[in-house]
Amino acid sequence: MDARTQEFVEYVQGGGQVETGDWMPDEYRAKLIKFIEMHGNSELMGVLPEREWILRAPTLQRKLALTAKVQDEVGHSQLIYRVVEDLGKPRSQCLQDLVDGRSKFHNVFHYPTKTWGDVGVIAWLVDAAAIISQKALLKCSYAPYARIMKKICWEESFHILHGRDVILTLMNGKDEQRALVQEAVDRWWGPLMTFHGTAIPADEDPMVFWRIKSQGNEEARQQFLDGYVPQIWELGLTVPDQELRKNDDGVWEYSEPDWDELKRVVTGHGPMTAERLEFRRRFLEQEAWVREVVLTEAA
Amino acid sequence: MSRRAEQLLEIADDELILGWRDSEWTGIAPTLEEDVAFSSIAQNEIGHARALYELASRDLGTTADALAFDRSPEEYRSAPLVELRRLDWARTIARHWLYETADELRLSELKSSDDAELAGLAAKMDREEVYHRMHAQMWADRLRGDERFEAALDELWPYALGVLAPEQRPAFADRVGREQVDAVERGEHSDELRELWNEMTMVRRSIPGATW
Amino acid sequence: MIFEVFRQERRGQAFAHAGSIDAPDLEFAEAWAREQYGRRQESEALWVVPREAVREVHDFPDELSKTYHRVDGYSLKAKLKEARERAQTAESAGALSADG
């Protein structure tokens, strides 16, 4: 590592923040682009599991709230891809790489949404897991990314309230509605347990080394379990893991998540991966003329 | 049903069904910025439908949700224009621009209605519709001359005329610079509305009597 | 074309940078910024500015300690003490906290 890079590493590890125009090591820039691009991809692909339920929302209030939530996610991808673009990778390239399977999106968005119960569980628990990761990014060494995270976290907190409201209404409803929630929790538990990634020690995580992330994966998972398992239990719901318990030292114990499945899913072999990418590709291509012909600056 | 309730339901159903159609773009619009903007428009249309249903529900002794979801497809009074499923951008903008132009004429009449409640609500809706019209006009100006857009306008024009009462149509034709043709009138519903209704009410029908 | 967006949260407050918008012209930028940065009534007003119009200025050297136009350039404590002694008001009430 040359002296300039060494100095940069010490600067970011000491809490220093970097702006777009500042000098930065190529490796840092590459790591940033990869990490932030995947975040943008995840917001955009995260739209699809919920989008189909926009058309099925059972009341006008739910319809409006769900549309607004999905709209927020598109807005987040806009903010995030702008950051990637200013780091040197154009949005059009990010979108092309996404639909061509050359870049990744978060594991949790590769699964089907089967019932209205899923809509509640996604907004409540998946968004809760996401907000834990995103709050940790408020301290990211790359300042433009840290700044947009404020708006993102602010909007996510509304999603969790919307999700809890959907869940509480179902749990106070008929037995069939309560069953929808339990069935959805059962199906989403696996993806939620792998959400924050393998328990790689923070000092071995290159994203932590560059202070892109400041939180270890297991730390995030523990925070999720600590915050949300009691909320699940207090509603009379169960979690499909016999081993799950909080030890006297405050650490949650759980069955080993299926890391092989995580690996299969994020490398593009999840149950809905191909279908969702194809759907996104269809509209990316179908409406390309609008971007190319109509929205060019000379038009 | 009173003439007032009929009139309210007609506009509410137009706004509901168009809002439902437009909301389908959330997540897949041509650009991310437009995606956010168009989703707001869809939400506003549904919000207008809700306010109109609430007004009608007091006359009819029911609720806004029941009016929006619990009627059979045949009972909706929406115009065929909003029922069409046209998930491509040229037609979406053509419909948006034609509808907003028609809606402005309809709203300006309602704003001067003797019915103070209705006039008040129309004024509130119009405050939001101003931005819809700006948005529609901005896109129409961009797309003007594009063959996809012009073909979409030709296709949708007879449907657009059906949104308004016959006496308002000459002003509408004038506003958009087109000749009046035979309108596709309200009354008959397409299979597209029945498909939309099936999807729209699917969760609600799955457990009858439930609170959501 | 990139437009920078500045957001005023409440009337009377300063506009702060909110983010950016990729739009073909100012009209689209304005329409899109309205929704991306104001749809929840979180803004009182926006400024939408073409990125090229924003000139970033860096580097404000002060190699020779030009402290006279800053508050930390003034140390009044010792001088005040001496002045009070000469005026023989050193013990008077309320004077002790008056220091720079």
Give a description of the structure:
The complex is a heterotrimer of chains A (299), B (212) and C (100). With 299 residues, chain A is mostly helical. Helix content of chain A is 67%, strand content 1%. Chain A has 13 helices and 2 strands. Chain A has a two-stranded antiparallel sheet. In chain A, β1 (245-246) and β2 form a beta hairpin. Chain A starts with a helix and ends in a 5-residue tail after the last helix. Helices cover 70% and strands 0% of the residues of chain B. The mean pLDDT of chain B is 96. The longest helix of chain B is centred in the N-terminal third of the chain and has 29 residues, at 32-60. Chain C has 100 residues and is α+β, with helices and mostly antiparallel strands. Chain C has 2 helices and 3 strands. In chain C, strands 2-1-3 form a 3-stranded antiparallel beta sheet, covered by helices on one side. Chain C starts with a strand and ends in a 13-residue tail after the last helix. Chain A binds chain B through residues 44, 47-48, 51, 53-60, 62-64, 67-68, 70-71, 73-75, 77-78, 81, 91, 116, 169-170, 172-174, 176-177, 279-280, 283, 286-287, 289-291, 293-295, 299, and chain B through 20, 23-24, 26-33, 35-36, 39-40, 42-43, 46-47, 49-50, 53, 64-65, 68-69, 88-89, 142-143, 146, 148, 196, 199-200, 202-204, 206-207, 209-212.
Please describe the topology of this protein.
The complex is a heterotrimer of chains A (299), B (212) and C (100).
Chain A: H1 3-13, H2 26-45, H3 47-54, H4 60-86, H5 91-99, H6 116-136, H7 143-171, H8 175-194, H9 206-209, H10 217-234, E1 245-246, E2 252-253, H11 259-269, H12 273-286, H13 288-294
Antiparallel strand pairs in A: 1-2
Chain B: H1 3-23, H2 32-60, H3 64-69, H4 80-83, H5 89-111, H6 116-143, H7 147-161, H8 169-176, H9 191-200, H10 202-206
Helix pairs in contact in B: 1-2, 2-6, 5-6, 5-7, 5-8
Chain C: E1 2-8, E2 16-22, H1 26-38, E3 45-50, H2 77-87
Antiparallel strand pairs in C: 1-2, 1-3
Task: Write out key terms for the chains shown.
heterotrimer, B: 212 residues, mainly alpha, Ferritin, 10 helices, 70% helix, C: 100 residues, alpha+beta, Ubiquitin-like (UB roll), 3-stranded antiparallel sheet, 3 strands, 20% strand, elongated
